[in-house]
Amino acid sequence: MKIGILTSGGDCPGLNAVIRGAVLKGDRAYSSSFVGFRYGWRGVVNGDFVDLNRHDVRGLSRQGGTILGSSRTNPFEGENGGPENIKRMLAENGIDAVIAIGGEGTLTAARRLSDEGINIVGVPKTIDNDLAGTDYSFGFDTAVEIATEAIDRVRTTAESHQRCILVEVMGRHVGWIALHSGMAAGAHAILIPEQPTSFDQICEWVESVRDRGRAPVLAVSEGFRLSNMDQEHSHKGLDAFNRPRLGGIAEILAPEIEARTGIESRSVALGHLQRGGVPSAYDRVLATRLGMHAVDAVEAGQWGTMVALRGTDIVHVTIAEATGGLNRVPDERYEEAAVLFG
């Protein structure tokens, strides 16, 4: 069987480990051959791909980024887009199936193409950890480690100047990165999308820290909104899937905190730092396992499914289930952390 692999959407640590796991398992267990589509769905609609063999993936598990490149191309747009054109391209090149590695946008497109009869298996990739159907996705652990180190580092400068510093991390609709990194680094408050909060409450936490002689440090998800805001803060336009590009909420909060409390305040947005660098050991192992099981799903003809982590086991769920809702932070998890605020 000839299998095409793509990495689409935002890059994250562990993508190369998935590719390596898939190619090595396919080569050794099934004598499969592989091609890699360049730059995600863009390579699919343009028929732009390269051969992948076991020598091409040697040593990849520790390498960050993706050797195939990525993009936020919508496969249903453009003159070569759409299921009929994609089917024709796959048939002309003898490609029997596609392993799509991506997050919400990528897998939503994969589900629609699968519904049109294209043989696709999905692999969950999102540092936000927001995909339903899997307990964790690779990239999340590495992002949390990076965010935790950043909060640790700003704490020393906050204490030196007695400033309040807000560290903005990624998290479009869910607050897992902020929750885990905030708890790990001992942030004095954690602001996440699932828990809109009033300015009065934020200032109460900040002042409580100041009154104890400490410098307040807050972890903030990019998708956080105040209780009086109708939607998330966005001033960067829309992406290829017509979703608002978020970011900048910490810049809105910091000057208002300073104005209300008199505490000099600053904001730091980590942005793409959370996506870069080498994956953690946990993410290398998880990504490798997901790649290997994705090939098993292809060989079994389990089209329209996604490999997922449940507990410590790799299972298969439908892509529809994975994209049908968000893996939100439960109230009880936030309440655990909130005991430590202020």
From TrEMBL:
Residues annotated as domain Phosphofructokinase: 2-298
One Pfam family hit: PFK
UniProt catalytic activity: beta-D-fructose 6-phosphate + ATP = beta-D-fructose 1,6-bisphosphate + ADP + H(+)
Subcellular location: Cytoplasm
Pathway: Carbohydrate degradation; glycolysis; D-glyceraldehyde 3-phosphate and glycerone phosphate from D-glucose: step 3/4
InterPro entries in the record: ATP_PFK, ATP_PFK_prok-type, Phosphofructokinase_CS, Phosphofructokinase_dom, Phosphofructokinase_III, PKF_sf
Binding site for Mg(2+): 104
Gene3D superfamilies noted in UniProt: 3.40.50.450, Phosphofructokinase domain
Residue sites binding substrate per the record: 126-128, 163, 170-172, 222, 266, 272-275
Keyword field: ATP-binding, Cytoplasm, Glycolysis, Kinase, Magnesium, Metal-binding, Nucleotide-binding, Transferase
Annotated catalytic residues: 128
Name used for this protein in its record: ATP-dependent 6-phosphofructokinase
Taxonomic lineage: Bacteria, Bacillati, Actinomycetota, Actinomycetes, Micrococcales
Name of the gene encoding the protein in the UniProt record: pfkA
